[in-house]
Amino acid sequence: MNADSIERLKKTMKKPHVNSTCIGCGACAAIAGEVFELDDMGLSRVTSLSEYPESETEDAISACPVSAISWQTADENGQYLNGVKEHEDIA
Predict the structure, then answer these.
(1) pTM exceeds 0.90 for this model
(2) 12-75, what's its fold?
């Protein structure tokens, strides 16, 4: 791994991602309200944080009845990498 690759990795973070199978049950928001909120359509959204609490987020991921939440890589501004978008499935 070269120096540029190492620098890019330093500028990434783990961020939860909600895909299109979300049914808006609210379990994630009840467990990790700092990380997840329900939007106007009643679906879960990831709030913008500089760092996501791993334990609470893992609990929310485990509690999701449709397995709609996973960890993804994001840049230092919180934008998902590799074209990943909220509420879209990952290829």
Answers:
(1) no
(2) Alpha-Beta Plaits (3.30.70)
